[in-house]
Amino acid sequence: MTEPKPEQLVQIDYTPPRAPWPGAPVEFRKGTYSHAGAAKNLKYLGLPNPRDWQPADLDWKLPENWREIILEGMRERLAKYRSFRLFMDICVRCGACADKCHFYLGTGDPRNMPVLRAELLRSVYRRYFTPAGRALGRLAGARDLTVDVLKEWFYYFYQCTECRRCSVFCPFGIDTAEVTMVARELLNLVGCNINWIVEPAANCQRTGNHLGIQPHGFKDTLDFAVDEIASLTGIRVEAPVNRKGAEILFVAPSADFYGTPHYYTLLGYLMVLHEARVDYTFSAYASEGGNFGMFVSHELMQRLNAKIYAEAHRLGVKWVLGGECGHMWRVLHQYMNTLNGPPDFLEPPVSPVTGTVFSNARSACAVHICELTADLVAHGKLRLDPARNDRWTVTFHDSCNTARGMGLLEEPRLLLRAACNHFFEMPENTIRERTLCCGSGAGLGGDENFETRMRGGLPRAAAVRQVKEVDGVNLLACICAIDKASLPKLLDYWVGGVEVAGVHELVGNALVMSGEKPRAADLRGEAYV
Amino acid sequence: MIAAAIAYLAFTTFVAGTVWRVVVWARAPVPFPIALTCGQQNAAWLENPWTPAGAACRLALEALFFRSLLRNSVGQACSLRPSSTRPGERSSPAFLYRPALSLWAAALLFHICLFWVWLGHLRFFVDPALLGPANRFLDAALLAALSFLFLRRVFDPRLRYLTLFSDYLPLALLATVASSGVLMRWWAHTDVVAVKRFAIGLATFHPVAPVAVGLLFYIHLFAASALVASIPFTKLTHMAGIFFSPTRNLPNRSRARRHVNPWLAPAQIHTYAEWEDEFRDKMRAAGLPLEHQ
Asked: Where are the domains of chain B?
């Protein structure tokens, strides 16, 4: 497939169409949607209606009673989720959310305004579940559920990254992520999902991680990383796997073991945990922090997430430490304790080095590695030489989930300021709780979805471009595995000359380890001049 | 007596409908603690509250001052800057985010005026009147804010597109109620004593027919009745709904205190034993510890 040029994509037309909403049926144009979930993955996960199909097909091979299934699913979820019922009822269409969505800013497609994305579902809700909609139909903003409507749902609810930026601006706190999560659950009831989500989820169910790395491969990777650190620093760190009796179970997103630049972050974790003498273990069974089940249904999220506490129990650890990842932390922070807790076999987390009690995690017993490392740095327990990162002029991209679903804003900044001499913030409307999504989250990172991803990431890229031109930024630091996978391509496409790194890569570069040999190269293996 | 019947019907519909709405919302559980955090954890007590009291303050400021709308901005893609048209440079627009407070100001003004006017109407229902008469500035501000909220839907192409017919309906009713009220108060003077007799009759459940009050009064009364009755069944229900919004009314302490989901079943987990069964040989070869040899 030939990729469209930036000069083409940059021509964004914000003029709404003449025809009134909802407008014409969706056109599935190559580059703007993701491939359908493969039957084998649906079968492995026990999801409904496994079959061979693609979104561009005319016939989606839906079950005969698909409409009843969806409406029954809606009825059930209206009773189970106050958020869903409420967000269907109270929107006043004030339009404050309209231009807060990165997909709207990047495409100009009015159905990407959060208000109208929700309206896709809301119109059907009104038609079948409210007196006004039943009686007045279109006058009350209601419409029938047809195959075209279902296709529209598929297109636009797999064109939302559940980043929650719109909700920051909504005077009622209406959260499009909730609407999208319910819509995707409904679509999954009739087997309409995308392979970039269900394949990692099936892998995770079987092997323990999204990439499908089997236990021996997992150990190989860690051994290789240990060798690499030894050759860079002269120090042999330990990276134990499935070791019973460790104090802490460390769970990272599996991309950290294989992806680039994720891998350098892994080296950073190993170095920090070694230097602080933390007693921990990896697990090959719970080798995934991320959770693509979250993008299918609450049930699948729960199923995949359950391995973490189960493994913590089996290994007899005291608490769980989590790596740099976005949606993983939405799950660990806001869902895990409810879904699979209470973990009464664990203990409230205490830093083994500083004695700091992480009372904010005393029930879920899961701590973010930035919280642990920032506490070490704040107590002066790590020696850092920021000059080793002097080739980088750094900015920080808040990942959506840690910013808006957790409030982890200062910890990574503290680490960056300690580990780098040159740190600059992007414009204030694009960071912290207003951070702009990379455009590839919530399972939309497939290559085939290229145009949508580049468009969705454009507002973020434009902000990076600004700090590149004004402050000379050449590195974007982040704490999200999807960011690390998608932003290099995005920044290369729109900006050029800005690389992407995890916060712990920069900490690892700056970390002065006791007994280390002089560093000839950074964690990327690039020689210091 | 038809006037009294309609007023009673509208009021009953409003009360019953609102109770129904609130009961439906309240009966649906909040399965997950989905607070939306807008500040540093354990530090920003208002933007990212970790106590119910903090969350209550956040919600109160939201309900009383529409605080989230204060963040509003207009995102605008600027045309390509000259630097990006140089050969070898990539083109991308810069986005400008200009603060946009007009919606916040108009919405707040409208709601305050409406509340004040509503409060002023109590003087018809109690004897002696508690509050002084309405004033011109308040009425003018109400009409101005209402006009702004209407005109932005008409003239902003984006808003025109996302506006439904059901968004114009409450505006039309409000405009009818407000303008007929203003006309009666300032121009076509209505017999206030007769109106008060009618109102007190309603309040004491001894309705009397309004005498010689004029057409404007009936327009005002019927439009107001329609407006009040429609509240639970239209988007106007937001006035009760905001207090239920889980992204705003929950504290962010889900790791410190477990949130219980009443309908959750235990996970159908792929167990460690099943996993080890599948990979045992490979694990043994790699020297990984095993539960069963």
From this structure: 2-65+164-259, 72-100
Enumerate the H helices of A141-294 as residue ranges: 147-157, 165-169, 176-189, 195-207, 215-233, 255-258, 262-275
Which structural domain, as residue segments, surrounds residue A181? Answer: 8-30+48-192
Whole-number mean pLDDT of chain A?
96
Chain A residues touching B260 at Cβ < 8 A: 338
Residue B139 has pLDDT above 70, yes or no: yes
Q: Are A515 and A234 in contact (CB under 8 A)?
A: yes
Do A84 and A208 belong to one domain? no
- Here the tokens at position A267 are 């080296």
pTM value is 0.95
Contacts of A331 (CB under 8 A, 6+ apart): A291, A294, A301, A305, A339
CA distance A407 to chain B (A): 5
> Is the CB of B283 less than 8 angstroms away from the CB of A284?
yes
Residue A172: alpha-carbon gap to chain centroid = 24
Shortest CA distance from B102: residue in chain A: A96
- Is B282 in contact with A216 (Cβ distance < 8 A)? yes
Q: With contact defined as beta carbons under 8 Å apart, do B83 and B129 qualify?
A: no
Q: What is the ipTM of this complex?
A: 0.94
Contacts A–B by Cβ distance under 8 A = 311
**Peptide bond just before A386 cis, omega within 30 deg:** no
Residue found by looking up tokens 């008409």 in the block: B154
- Cβ contacts (< 8 Å) between B48 and chain A: which residues? 407
Is the CB of residue B39 less than 8 Å away from at least one CB of chain A?
A: yes
At residue B86, does pLDDT exceed 90? no
The domain total for chain A is 2
Contact A463 B95 (CB under 8 A): yes
